Amino acid sequence: MRWTSLATLVAPAQAALRFGCSTVSIQRLDPVVEPGSIPSAHLHQIVGGNAFNASMNGDIGNQGTCTTAYWTAVMFFKHENGSYKKVPIMPNAALPNGINGGMTVYYTQKDFNNNGNQKITAFKPGFRMTVGSPTTSSLDQAKGHAGLRFVCLSDKNTRFPELPDFPTKPCKGGIMTVHHFPSCWDGKNLDSPDHQSHMYSTTKEAFAEAGPCPSTHPVRMPQLAYETLWDTAQFANMWPKDGKNPFVLSFGDEHGYGTHADYMFGWKGDSLQKAMDDKCMFNACENGKPLKSQNVAAMNACAAKKTVTENIDGWMDKLPGMNM
Ligand SMILES: *[C@@H]1O[C@H](CO)[C@@H](O)[C@H](O)[C@H]1NC(C)=O
Ligand SMILES: *[C@@H]1O[C@H](CO)[C@@H](O)[C@H](O)[C@H]1NC(C)=O
Question: Where is the signal peptide, in residue numbers (predicted)?
Answer without folding.
Answer: 1-15
